[in-house]
Design goal:
Blueprint lengths: L4 H12 L4 E8 L11 E8 L2 H13 L4 E3 L6 E2 L5 E6 L8 E6 L4 E7 L4 H11 L1 E2 L11 H6 L3 E2 L2 E2 H4 E7 L5 E5 L17 E11 L2 H18 L6 E4 L9 H7 L6 E2 L2 E3 L6 E4 L5 H19 L8 E2 L3
Parallel strand pairs: 2-5, 3-5, 4-18
Antiparallel strand pairs: 1-2, 6-7, 7-13, 8-13, 9-10, 11-12, 11-13, 14-17, 15-16, 16-17
Length: about 300
């Protein structure tokens, strides 16, 4: 079934008949993203269980309907107009955290649902004295999104802590892939784009609460010092080219503070574009394209985008 005008009418009935799936029709998405930018979605679907998620994805794939997982809405730029797609949230069907295994050496393995917010995972670790995942502090979004893009900082990345990942593949099969079966690299876990991550297992160690809090505080202070935390954004816009820092290239091109509408290259970190209050998606896209052209003109380097730009 193709996505002509009639499919959206038919799809509304089909989705409405799915058990354990909450559907929010023409739901505005700006408040669901860290950029605070974006128009409504045809449908925001919130499956209540993993089985409901599988049924939902099977239906959308069989009908050839555009769809994607929203996650925490970070690292994402949505269009100003309605998104003709079904946008899926996993916060209700993949929200558990549990201890999968422990070792005599103080090692622990945490099974974490893809819909778990990274901030909630940090609180869980602090409460249960699990260290080793502090590198995720301050990163917005969910565990599933962080795993898919191998999120991290100079202190570590998801692939470093990963034991296995559970996913729904392009053939609607549930798979558990060990870390050794993956091909992680910079900002990618090496999974096909059609994969839907259900959860993963992350390694941690039992540690002293005072030491853990000190580590978290130090990392948070550094992030707040170097990044424009107080403003809506999607984090780093570009990947670092080999041998270069994207932010340094943009800064040397004289682009800090450059604005199009209310979209601005941050004066604190040039690889961040911030929303000064009323930025539109088209402003952000125009600014991204301007930055790319300037860096290419000055240095002959083509910047690769780290954020995902969703077309209408």
């Amino acid at each position: 079934m193709k996505t002509g005008a009639s499919i959206w009418i038919t799809l509304r009935t089909l989705l409405g008949d799915l058990p354990e799936v909450e559907c929010r029709w023409h739901e505005p998405l700006a408040s669901y993203t860290t950029f605070r930018v974006g128009g409504p979605a045809f449908c925001l679907a919130r499956p209540q269980t993993t089985d409901a998620l599988v049924r939902l994805v099977e239906l959308l794939r069989s009908c050839q309907v555009p769809h994607f997982v929203l996650g925490g809405g970070s690292n994402l730029l949505l269009p100003d107009e309605e998104v003709k797609a079904v946008v899926i949230q996993l916060e209700q069907c993949a929200s558990d955290i549990s201890v999968a295994a422990t070792g005599d050496d103080g090692k622990a393995w945490l099974a974490v649902g893809a819909g778990v917010r990274l901030a909630r995972l940090q609180r869980y670790c602090l409460q249960h004295r699990f260290g080793g995942l502090e590198f995720l502090v301050g990163i917005p979004g969910t565990v599933g999104g962080a795993a898919f893009m191998n999120a991290g900082t100079g202190a570590g990345s998801m692939a470093d802590a990963l034991l296995w990942v559970d996913l729904l593949d392009g053939e609607n099969r549930r798979q558990r892939l060990p870390q050794t079966a993956l091909s992680p690299n910079y900002r990618s876990l090496g999974l096909p784009d059609e994969s839907v991550i259900l959860g993963c297992c992350l390694g941690a160690t039992v540690c002293a609460p005072d030491r853990q809090r000190a580590s978290l505080s130090r990392l948070l202070r550094e992030r707040k010092r170097t990044q424009p935390w107080q403003m809506p954004s999607a984090g780093c816009v570009f990947k670092n080219p080999a041998g270069h820092a994207a932010g340094a290239l943009i800064e040397k091109a004289g682009l800090k503070g450059f604005r199009i509408g209310d979209a601005e290259v941050s004066t604190k970190h040039a690889n961040w574009i911030i929303n000064r209050g009323r930025a539109r998606s088209k402003d952000v896209v125009a600014l991204i394209e301007h930055v790319e052209a300037c860096v290419r003109q000055h240095y002959g380097i083509r910047l690769e985008r780290e954020i995902r730009i969703v077309e209408r």
